[in-house]
């Protein structure tokens, strides 16, 4: 296909995001304060739990230091990294060292209690003082997550309750946009709102459509797997995705020896036949199928898979089990390593060390060392084309959508959120324009062509979304009427 990534495209995109930056997301101040109360309670509860687990007072911030001088001398301040590191070692944890740059700009292994070190610690039970000691590290990571959430979102400066972001179209080598607080210090990164966890839903409920507006969310379905399977020349997988098959269930089914149908029933639990524990187990199995596929696509090793599970789900999965999962995924998708990865390796081993996406974006991969495994560089190389294709697919859609309306508020790399006037006709118009903007045939070097489909949801806030069964006008109106009914019911019977 004709190269689309050019100076003209990037200049247009920068202009569009400059306009998008001025719109921002409305944050309900009352709901935000409720989340703050919940956040403070969770931090307090977690400190109490850690105090009981470690048999020593645990607190956050010098203002919460115990008044008793004897207790204060023994207490652990979670905001004091050196003291926390010393305390963990005293408790018997073998905290792993992390590779960091020193003052001479050279890498060295140093002690740390940063997130990476704690994730590695949680993933490796041999570093714990006892089999049960992992609970303390899991709780510590959860507490750090809440502290970060509080500082990043609840404490973000708002202007008239609007959360602004400043998008940079050249923030990444893949072409995906980056975002941060704006020039005046308002808002922050709107692309990485928490998607799971205890505070995810309460925060999403705070983000509301302005009066007389409704949110329209669109996502690219199985976004990065399309270019991965095209590069792997996996025609059966591409055909499955064209038919709307969710391949995560296929992998989860093979990994855990449960039927796809049973796994779907347990995970969705539409009829209420399963316990909370069964539903959570099914969700974990689905995650493993999804994460296993993703890790295999991008060459993630068992250790990295184990650490990802610890970070994202708080799970301690033995490296041997992670290797077994990746082996099963490899047997299902053998072309990933044998065709896709081989193509990438050969491309970056040539004199120009270049990868070029079907949309015309290029990147040189330097630093490959003969005789070494080069995991880090290869991981980046494997992910470059899929991430870039999906990111540019979104960017190209933005340039088209902004020609007909100015409703885009947020870019989630493979998704968009638009705030549309709350009327049937305008919603239909935007719905059609969005479908047209994402309709794009992408042709790869091997002749395989793909068109990444999209799905949609509508809502009056970021939490209570109604998903369309299919991307059709009929299903849009069905979801819109359901949304109207639920909204009317909530106004008549508000939940305290």
Detailed description of the structure:
The protein has 496 residues and is α+β, with helices and mostly antiparallel strands. The chain has helices at residues 7-21, 29-54, 69-74, 81-90, 115-123, 134-154, 200-206, 225-231, 235-242, 247-256, 260-268, 276-297, 302-313, 319-332, 335-349, 375-404, 424-438, 473-492; strands spanning 25-27, 58-59, 76-77, 98-101, 107-110, 162-163, 166-168, 178-180, 207-208, 213-220, 354-356, 362-364, 408-411, 415-421, 442-443, 449-450, 454-459, 466-467. The chain folds into three domains: 1-28 and 161-228 and 369-496, Alpha-Beta Plaits; 39-148, no CATH class; 248-332, no CATH class. The protein contains 18 helices and 18 strands. Strands 13-14-10-17-18 form a five-stranded antiparallel β-sheet, covered by helices on one side. Strands 6-1-9 form a three-stranded antiparallel β-sheet. It is globular and about 70 Å long. The model has no long low-confidence stretch (mean pLDDT 93).
């Amino acid at each position: 296909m004709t190269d689309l990534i050019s100076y003209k495209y990037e200049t247009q995109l920068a202009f569009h995001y400059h306009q998008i930056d001025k719109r921002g997301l409305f944050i309900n101040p009352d709901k935000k304060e409720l989340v703050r109360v919940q956040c403070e309670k969770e931090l307090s509860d977690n400190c109490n739990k850690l105090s009981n687990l470690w048999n020593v007072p645990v607190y956050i911030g010098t203002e919460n230091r115990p008044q008793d001088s004897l207790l204060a001398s023994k207490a652990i301040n979670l905001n004091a990294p050196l003291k926390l590191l010393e305390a963990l070692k005293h408790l018997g944890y073998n905290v792993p060292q992390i590779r960091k740059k020193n003052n001479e700009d050279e890498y060295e292994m140093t002690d740390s209690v940063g997130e990476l070190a704690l994730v590695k610690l949680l993933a490796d039970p041999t570093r714990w003082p006892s089999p049960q000691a992992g609970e303390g590290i899991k709780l510590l990571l959860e507490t750090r997550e809440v502290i970060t959430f509080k500082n990043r979102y609840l404490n973000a400066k708002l202007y008239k309750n609007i959360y602004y972001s400043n998008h940079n179209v050249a923030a990444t080598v893949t072409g995906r946009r980056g975002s941060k607080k704006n020039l005046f210090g308002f808002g922050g990164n709107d692309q990485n709102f928490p998607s799971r966890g205890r505070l995810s839903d309460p925060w999403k409920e705070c983000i509301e459509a302005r009066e007389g507006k409704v949110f329209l969310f669109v996502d690219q379905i199985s976004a990065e797997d399309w270019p991965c399977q095209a590069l792997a020349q996996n025609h059966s997988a591409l055909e499955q995705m064209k038919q709307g098959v969710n391949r995560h269930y296929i992998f989860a089914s093979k990994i855990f020896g449960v039927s796809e149908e049973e796994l779907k029933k347990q995970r969705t639990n539409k009829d209420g036949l399963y316990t909370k524990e069964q539903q959570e187990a099914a969700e974990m199995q689905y995650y493993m199928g999804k994460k296993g596929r993703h890790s295999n696509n991008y060459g993630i090793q068992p250790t990295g898979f184990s650490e990802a599970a610890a970070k994202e789900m708080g799970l301690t999965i033995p490296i041997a089990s992670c290797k077994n999962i990746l082996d099963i995924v490899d047997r299902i998708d053998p072309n990933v390593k044998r065709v896709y990865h081989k193509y990438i390796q050969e491309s970056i081993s040539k004199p120009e060390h270049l990868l070029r996406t079907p949309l015309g974006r290029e990147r040189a991969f330097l630093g490959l060392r003969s005789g070494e495994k080069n995991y880090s560089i290869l991981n980046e190389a494997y992910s470059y084309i899929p991430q870039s294709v999906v990111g540019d697919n979104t960017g190209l859609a933005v340039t088209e959508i902004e020609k007909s309306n100015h409703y885009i508020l947020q870019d989630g790399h493979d998704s968009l959120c638009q705030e549309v006037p709350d009327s049937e006709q305008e919603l239909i118009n935007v719905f059609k324009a969005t479908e047209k903007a994402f309709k794009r045939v992408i042709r790869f070097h091997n002749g395989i062509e793909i068109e990444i489909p999209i799905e949609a949801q509508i809502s009056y806030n970021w939490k209570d979304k109604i998903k369309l069964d299919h991307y059709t006008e009929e299903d849009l109106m069905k979801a819109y009427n359901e949304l109207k009914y639920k909204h009317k019911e909530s106004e008549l019977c508000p939940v305290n």
